[in-house]
Amino acid sequence: MSDSASAPRFDLDAYFGRIGWAGGRRPDAATLRGVQLAHLRAIPFENLDALGGRAPSLDLADLMAKLVHGRRRGGYCYEHNTLFAAALEALGVRVTLLTARVVLGADRFADRPRTHMALLAELPGDPRPYLADVGFGALGSLLEPVPLIADTEFHDAGRRHRLVHAPGRGPLETWVLQAHRAGDWQAQYAFTVEPFEPSDYEVINWHVATNPRSPFARRPYVQRLTPDAHLLLDGDRLTVTRTDDGTVTERKLPGETEARRALAEEFGIDAPEGLTLLR
């Protein structure tokens, strides 16, 4: 991601302490899988900065302060994957930043702009690059990285995924991440392996956070992953999906106080003072 000799050394000890990772530090597939899953289970997905009308900082020092040292906040895809990319590079993994179209529920892929950040991870001695992603806020997200191989089903910590090709107009192949849900393969996002730079995400991040038409600027969207369940707060709806049998329970939060309590107790998030969650 960055070859700058002046970049500060990434604090892997603090990051691993935050995500509870006590495993190996070799840049291999087992470490890559374990660190991604640990990150997902430790740091929640949330859009509270955007809901408050500002784009969150993507500066690595700010991300460490908010997501690692702060411990009572999370972030959305640009924050999560910028932090994850820095950790992987500190481990000796080569990382390429990718930008995807979120096509879940879309009739045409081209109708969705490229707004999601994902990562391509290359391991020393391994000819296969991996799609890695700790920032996709959906039930169809990857729990572990998968090799960039088409038409092969992967089982990642209890979920089923595959990558397929789709027609595209550009010179690069279009890849589609699919998740197996409700008895069918559902497209999650589409991407090419064109490299993007941190400066590109400054623009995308600002647009997604501050555009009044962006869903992230209009209602709270928060998720937390545990070994037993996936928790989602979407507006005033709290949904819990069990990992073992897929049982779904949903309840409506009656007001602001209950929403703040749910964030604190269910998601481990302290909402900023003065922020109105339910509008």
UniProtKB/TrEMBL annotation:
GO MF assignments: acetyltransferase activity
Organism: Streptomyces coelicoflavus
Alphabetically ordered keywords of this record: Transferase
Classification via InterPro entries: Arylamine_N-AcTrfase, Papain-like_cys_pep_sf
Protein name per the record: Arylamine N-acetyltransferase
Domain of life per record: Bacteria
A Pfam match: Acetyltransf_2
Family, similarity comment: Belongs to the arylamine N-acetyltransferase family.
